[in-house]
Every structure is written in structure tokens, then in C-alpha cells.
Amino acid sequence: MSQENESSVHDILTKVDDNTWEVPANFKPGMNVPGRIFVSKTLLDILEKETIDQVANVASLPGIQKYSMAMPDAHLGYGFSIGGVAAFDKHEGVISPGGVGFDINCGVRLIRSNLSEEDVRPKLPELLDALFEAIPSGVGSKSRRKVNDKELDDIFVHGVRWAVENGYGVKGDISHCESNGTMPGADPSKVSIKARKRGRPQIGTLGSGNHFLEVQYVDKIYDEEAAKAFGLKEGQITFMIHCGSRGAGHQICTDHLQVLSQASKKYKITLPDKQLACAPAESEEAQDYFKAMTCAANYAWVNRQVIMHWSREVFDSFFKEEFGDLGLDLVYDVAHNVAKLEKHTIDGEVKEVYVHRKGATRAFPAGHPEVPEDYRNIGQPVIIPGSMGTASYILKGCPAAMELTFGSACHGAGRVMSRKSAKHDLRGEEIQNELKAQGIIVRATQPSLIAEEAPEVYKSSSDVVDVVHNLGIATKVARVLPMGVVKG
Asked: DSSP secondary structure string, 81-129?
């Protein structure tokens, strides 16, 4: 970071503790609350000033509670920063698509197995080829299962339950998804014909961008009790699926942004950035968006569920005859981009608020009723993916998250280089060969996709996770390392 930028960032922020920095409420006119940015000194040194501006802009929206926040993986996004968290009063606040993002319920799930690294390593190239063949990936990729309009409505309303009832999984998968893989209140009538058209052929597809399917092994256990509850042990094979609501979610966001841009004017909401288009939470415009967003969130859970089902079939065909039951159980599935109506204690009073998590993970602690029963004594699994060449982490949600961040943690490593710059500066074939030398095999539709998501375009996942661990928002349970990656 340049000395000029370092000076400007440090001039703006007030240090609260080693991992917490405040954006004062007088930093910009119109701020209703201060901002809170959770970063270490190392991460602060690579934080863009524009991200601080976005945190301050969000702080000016009506009805915001306590703080406008940014998690340690924060970087510049559409309106809200990626890694942004904000809660708005149910009655006096707003709902904003910019606080969710275009890839509604982009999220990640982790599946464990009874296999060891030694079982899988000899067959890894062939396994990745089979996964790459089985799971459609890339821009505009089409599914092996095109659904009709009636099925699409069922997916929008019933989420993962639709998938399990149609043979794509088992009942136990449902309770191991955030919100049981189905948010209530979805209304397919609020989804446009164009969004439906984009959604019908894409169930069970990875898409592109930073989406992936990764075969991993558990490298380190930090918390034996929690790891046992999550069914994790050292040397064990896991795989992780990261993707979202595909074209349907993108179109739903696009459609409703147009409506809410007009609604902001109608309700005379002063916006410091037009990308923060919003409407009063109880207005028809905001509720229409929320009902359509819920459809996309439920679609995304089905998408990851179907990908998991087809991946289980691939693993079974490779290993079941030799190893018997592979124990391919879903550890957990978390949303990264979503708005939810939740109850939180604010200044001693329990209030209902719309929590916007945009590139952030819910991190509810032990005892919370929304944590699955078999994890309720431990806390919610919090899954933090790294990049293709770096570690991913499994953490558990802790009580400090409810006090500091409306029950939220980071969602990944966070970019330090744009996709455009990465494609210009890096060569996919070189990255692929470098990873291969480290024992990591990558399959992708195009080399440029590998360049876009090269390990060096991301912050250190370890640095990011250390911040939430040290703050006590979510603490480390296990670390997994990549062996093979199917790139979306």
C-alpha cells in the first residue's frame, strides 16, 4: 500500500482493539451510526479506502442498528462492500438488494467421508475428470436436469426439501443446511419470466467466477470436541461445493434493483451511492424484492444439493466397491449472500431486524435454536473457503458473534486483485502447472478461469480466519487443504 493511502486509511479509522477499527459517525455527512471494520494490522494495510467509504455510505441508510460493519475479508463491492454486514429495524429500516448482491445465496457446503488421503490420491486425476464430466460448469452451463415451470415453483418455495423428495439426497441433508435449506415467505409470482427462463436449465450447475468443487483432506484439528461433533478427523477426505443461484438469482436482483431505484426516490431516501437503492422494509417494493430474493435463496440450496448428489454418485462409482459405505454426509451448508429477518438483542432489547450479509457467514453460537440439534451444544459450523492453493477452515459460531456482528463472520479470503487485472497479469496454464507441482490438480473449461482465481489474487485465508478466531466471533475447529479443484 502506498504511503499516501496508508496515511488516509489511518487518518480515518480509530483503533478500538488489535482487530477492530471504527469509522467515526462524523466521517461523512448523514451517517446514522459509526462503522466497524474487523481487520488485523496486516489486513488493514491492504484495505482499500473505497471499502471504508462503502461502510460509511451504508451507515447512512435509514433504520440501521449499532454499526455498519465489514468482516476481515472485506473489499469493494456493488453498493455494500463484499464482507459487509448491516441490520435494519423491521419497521423503521430498509431492505436493499445491494446488501445481498447479485449471486443471491452464493454459499458453500462441506461433505465428509470415510476415505483417507491415501485412498484417494492414486485415483485423483481420474476422479477429477469424472467430477468435471458430471457437474456442468462454466458461463451459461446447462444442467442434466431441466425443470419445468411447476417444478421451478416448487424449488422456489420448498428449497432443499424438493431436492430430497425427488431423489437428490437424504433427509439428514435437510437439517444440515442453514435454515433447513428453505427460507419461508418465497413468492414465485414476484419472479420475472426472464428470471424463470434463466433458472429452468441451470439446477445442478457450478457456473463460473469463484465457484468450485474441491476435493480436500483434513490437515489439522484445533478443537477435538467440535471436530468430533462435526465428524472430522485428521487425514480424512472431504469435499466442498461453492456456488449460488446462477442466472435466476442474478436476474431477480437486476429486476428488483430497477424497482427499488425508483422506490428510493418515491420514499425520499437520500442515497450517497445509487447502488444502495432500497425501500422502507414494510413497503410493497421492499417486500416484493424480499419474496423474490427468498425464491433465489431456496433455488441456490437446491443447486448445491443436486451438485452434491451427483458428486456422491461419482465417489461411489470410484470407491464404494473397494471401501464399502463411504459415509458421504453433509457436515453443513451456509449462505454467504442473503438478507434475513432475525431477532437480536440491541441495547438490552430484543428486536426484529433485517440482517444483510453480503459476503459474510452466519455464525450462531451453541444453544441458538437455529443451530441443528446435533450441533446445538457446540455451535453452528462456519465454513471459510480459501483459494485453489491455500487452506480452507471450519470454525464454530461463538457468543461474541451475537454481541459484535449480529451473529456473522467472514466468508472467504477476499480478493486483492480484480478479475480483469488477474487475466491481464497471470497465465492460467502457468498457475495450473505451479499448483500441480504442489500436488493440486485443477480442471477448468478455460485457462483464463484459473488465472482469475489464482491463489495470489486473494488475501491469506489464514490471516482472515485469525481475526474472527481472535475476536471470538467464530473459533477454529479444523483446517483442510486442497488436493483437486473443479473450477466453475
From this structure: PEEEEEEEETTT-EE-GGGT-SSTT-EEEEEEEEEEHHHHGGGHHHHHH
Can you say which residues are annotated as belonging to the binding site for GMP? 210-214, 336-337, 385-388, 392, 411-414, 487
pLDDT band, residue 6 (cuts 50/70/90):
low
d(CA 368, CA 474): 14
Length of the chain: 488
Contact 169, 163 (CB under 8 A): yes
pLDDT at 1 over 60: no
Task: Give the residue numbers annotated as catalytic, written as ranges.
Answer: 411
**Measured CA distances, 328 to 169, 172, 231, 236, 294 (Å):** 11, 11, 11, 11, 28
Cα 297 to Cα 340: distance, rounded to the nearest angstrom: 11
Confidence band for 387, pLDDT divided at 50, 70 and 90: confident
- Tally helices (H) and strands (E) across the chain: 17, 19
**308 touches 330 (CB < 8 A):** yes
Task: List the grid coordinates of 226.
Answer: 467440535
| Backbone region of residue 138 per phi and psi (left: phi > 0; alpha: psi in -120 to 50; beta: other values) | left
> Residues annotated as binding site?
103, 210-214, 242, 336-337, 385-388, 392, 411-414, 487
